[in-house]
């Protein structure tokens, strides 16, 4: 079974990925009680590098937030962001006029395409208890032919995301097909929208002291298993500790023996796009010249400007989960 392992590597910040994925980051922040302003007590901000706070202190970070944790407005071009919020909430606002509050298992799928600005803030809505946040953000590349598609915003509500219960394991199928269970459709111009690309994003929770078998893929894809929570796991007699990634041979079923604690995994899989990648911050193109062009266009156009009152825009404290689409359609959840 250990022969199915192509590589193991420690999980840093961000996590190492394989084509067609560009980036994956795991945020786990044990935020305290919130204030009326949906941020932590200002006294807790002392001693932090506010505006660039990426060092875990007291179990949490402010990132680029000033009073509320998160990421104020910033641009993207040439790829997609898939944001899975397992715990806590994220407030989204963008230059298309779209907005939303999602969390507790929801996923947002955004195609940046030709260019979009958005903000992602983490409001601390609970004033009487802690506000834990667990979030994955995954960047999925777009091929050259789709780099300039129109931006697109889509919500995958947790009530609609398939979760397969195999008894000793639960598999959340965010993208792709798992044992003939098909995920909800991704954004229309996504690399994941073509079944032959066999893109999969699965969040797997397996019980302690059991065995879980990851089924093989149908085609030659890249496949990475991220072991982000638990004790030890085994592939045959090969032990792997938590906070490691494992690049796997996709042509084989892989049986994993779970150690003394429940194990949590993220699987990213897909056919490589196999094109040159030029990256600079929030822009991903095929050449350095295209990166320079993206920077110049953003400087001139701001990708449509910013229609919201604040760079770190958050929604009303009493607002529930919702999505406001660019065409004005409003979807509200309880």
Q: What would your notes on this structure say?
A:
The protein is built from 1 helix and 26 strands. It has 2 domains: 132 residues, Jelly Rolls; 140 residues, Sandwich (Jelly Rolls), CATH 2.60.120. With 334 residues, it is mainly beta. A 7-stranded antiparallel β-sheet has the order 1-20-17-22-15-12-11, with no helix packed on it. It is 4% helix and 42% strand. The protein is globular and about 55 Å long. The model has no long low-confidence stretch (mean pLDDT 97). It holds the Pfam family Pirin. Belongs to the pirin family. This is Pirin.
Quick one: CATH class of the largest domain? Answer: Mainly Beta
Q: What is the H/E order?
A: EEEEEEEEEEEEEEEEEEEEEEEEHEE
Number of domains: 2
Query: Shape, please?
Result: globular
Percent of residues in helices: under 10%
Gyration radius, rounded = 20 Å
**CATH H-tier superfamily of the largest domain:** Jelly Rolls
Approximately what portion of the residues adopt beta-strand conformation? 35-45%
Instruction: Enumerate how many helices there are, as a single number.
Output: 1
Specify the biggest β-sheet. 7 strands, antiparallel
What's the CATH topology label of the largest domain? Answer: Jelly Rolls
Roughly what is the average pLDDT, rounded to an integer? 97
Distance between the termini: 45 Å
CATH architecture of the largest domain: Sandwich
Poorly predicted regions are none
Domain Pirin N-terminal: 62-140
Organism: Flagellimonas aquimarina
Protein name: Pirin
Family: Belongs to the pirin family.
């Amino acid at each position: 079974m250990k022969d199915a392992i192509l590589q193991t590597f420690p999980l840093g910040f961000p996590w190492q990925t394989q084509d067609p994925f560009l980036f994956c980051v795991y945020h786990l922040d044990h935020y305290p009680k919130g204030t009326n302003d949906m941020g932590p007590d200002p006294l807790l901000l002392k001693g932090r590098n506010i505006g660039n706070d990426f060092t875990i202190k007291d179990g949490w970070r402010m990132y680029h937030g000033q009073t509320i944790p998160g990421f104020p407005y910033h641009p993207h071009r040439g790829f997609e962001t898939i944001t899975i919020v397992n715990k806590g909430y994220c407030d989204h606002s963008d230059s298309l006029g779209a907005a939303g509050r999602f969390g507790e298992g929801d996923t947002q799928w955004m195609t940046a395409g030709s260019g979009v600005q958005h903000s992602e803030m983490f409001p601390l809505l609970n004033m009487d208890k802690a506000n834990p946040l667990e979030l994955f953000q995954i960047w999925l590349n777009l091929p050259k032919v789709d780099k300039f598609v129109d931006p697109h915003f889509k919500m995958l509500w947790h009530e609609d995301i398939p979760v397969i219960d195999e008894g000793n394991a639960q598999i959340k199928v965010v993208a792709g097909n798992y044992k003939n269970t098909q995920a909800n459709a991704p954004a229309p111009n996504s690399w994941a929208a073509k079944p032959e690309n066999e893109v999969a994003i699965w969040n797997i929770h397996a019980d302690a002291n059991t065995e879980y078998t990851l089924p093989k893929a149908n085609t030659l894809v890249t496949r990475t298993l991220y072991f982000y929570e638990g004790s030890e796991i085994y592939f045959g007699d090969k032990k792997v500790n938590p906070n490691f990634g494992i690049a796997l041979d996709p042509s084989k079923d892989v049986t994993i023996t779970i150690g003394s604690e429940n194990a949590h995994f993220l699987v990213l899989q897909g056919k490589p796009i196999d094109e040159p990648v030029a990256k600079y911050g929030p822009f991903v193109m095929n050449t350095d010249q295209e990166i320079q062009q993206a920077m110049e266009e953003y400087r001139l156009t701001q990708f449509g400007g910013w229609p919201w009152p604040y760079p770190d825009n958050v929604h009303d404290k009493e607002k529930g989960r919702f999505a406001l689409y660019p065409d004005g359609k409003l979807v509200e959840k309880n």
